[in-house]
Automatic annotation (TrEMBL):
Species of the source: Spirosoma agri
Lineage: Bacteria, Pseudomonadati, Bacteroidota, Cytophagia, Cytophagales
Keyword vocabulary terms for this entry: Membrane, Transmembrane, Transmembrane helix
Name of a matching Pfam family: His_kinase
Protein name: GHKL domain-containing protein
UniProt keyword annotation of Membrane present: yes
Example of a GO cellular component annotation carried by this entry: membrane
Length: 344
């Protein structure tokens, strides 16, 4: 009969390799002990005892997997009794035949009891190993499912970032095309740079903090074109050290939110402050903007109000659990967001 091409790969898969290594380790230990004792008379009995121990442990493992873990208690008790009688009797027979062939009857009864106790302990050892392995496997499966769920949620959230940004930018372009058509070329150039980052770089799990800050600078330039006549802007964005990374499109959402809501104020001057400070592996980022609950709001802003920040909070919870603090405060005319984030 021809074996399938992957027969040996299947036979020596990870779990079976571990069992094989344990068998070999115990066998080597047994040979080592026999070589030290230099008494070949006990070698056959020692090898038979080795096989008996393995049989007891794996019988216990088999009973656990097929009856204990499935809750079949009646079948478990019956099979356990059969295993104790069969393996206990086998252990007694090995002991008498190889080690004590002339054992008196009263000692045979005592040895039978001892053999049954040892058999029970070995079966229990098999039970224990099977339960531990089942618990570890269940834990690992739970972690894998949680990681897959986390990845799916992140993919969904990332897929929402670029459309949300593009939606707001197209609104900007529409307004400028009517009021300041001569500024459209510069706007389109900035839009091209922003879209390149949001479409290609933002698809990565992490990006260089330097690239994220450059993206924010480009976004500020784009928004400045639209709001130059009313804007009072105070920006402090340092040069990020090389190697410091962050999840993409996190910080810019706060900047986008500031421009969007500050334009709705009735004040003649829009005030926005954007500050970033980097200390070792911590980012301290805050954005302040003009704010008015009774300001002029269009229907588009009302429908999408709060979407961006809610998205960011979900991403922070998934990517940086316990490693960030986010505070949002607002007065009658000012709104401020402060983020402290530990990055790698």
């Amino acid at each position: 009969m021809k074996l399938p091409a992957n027969y040996f790969d299947v036979f020596f898969e990870k779990g079976k390799r571990i069992h094989l290594l344990v068998f070999l380790a115990l066998l080597i230990l047994l040979v080592f002990v026999l070589s030290i004792s230099r008494n070949g008379r006990y070698a056959p009995g020692a090898f038979m005892s080795y096989g008996w121990v393995i049989a007891c442990v794996y019988t216990g493992r088999w009973l656990c997997r097929n009856w204990l873990l499935t809750g079949q208690w009646v079948g478990l008790v019956m099979m356990l009794i059969v295993a104790l009688i069969g393996l206990g009797g086998l252990g007694l027979g090995v002991y008498i035949y190889f080690f004590e062939p002339n054992l008196p009857l009263n000692h045979i009864i005592e040895s039978g009891i001892n053999s049954t106790v040892v058999t029970f302990l070995l079966l229990f050892g098999g039970f224990f190993l099977a339960v531990i392995r089942s618990a570890i496997r269940e834990k690992m499966n739970g972690l894998i499912l949680a990681e897959q769920k986390k990845g799916s949620e992140l993919s969904l959230l990332r897929s929402q970032v670029s459309p949300h940004f593009l939606f707001n930018t197209l609104n900007n372009m529409y307004s400028l095309s009517i009021n300041r058509p001569n500024q459209m070329p510069a706007l389109l150039l900035k839009l091209s740079e922003l879209l390149r980052y949001s479409v290609y770089d933002a698809d990565q799990p992490l990006v260089q903090l330097k690239d994220e800050l450059d993206y924010i600078r480009n976004y500020i330039d784009l928004e400045t074109i639209r709001s130059a006549d009313r804007l009072s802007l105070n920006v402090s964005l340092p040069d990020a050290p090389a190697g410091l990374k962050i999840a993409p499109m996190l910080l810019v959402v706060f900047v986008e939110n500031a421009f969007k809501h500050s334009r709705n104020t009735l004040e003649s001057e829009i005030q926005i402050g954007i500050n970033c400070k980097i200390v070792n592996d911590h980012i301290y980022f805050d954005v302040t903007n003009s704010y008015s609950e009774n300001g002029a709001k269009d229907r588009t802003d009302k429908r999408n109000s709060g979407f961006g920040i809610a998205n960011v909070i979900k991403r922070l919870d998934l990517l940086y659990p316990g490693e960030y603090t986010l505070n949002q405060t607002h007065t009658e005319n000012r709104f401020k967001v402060e983020l402290s984030l530990k990055v790698n």
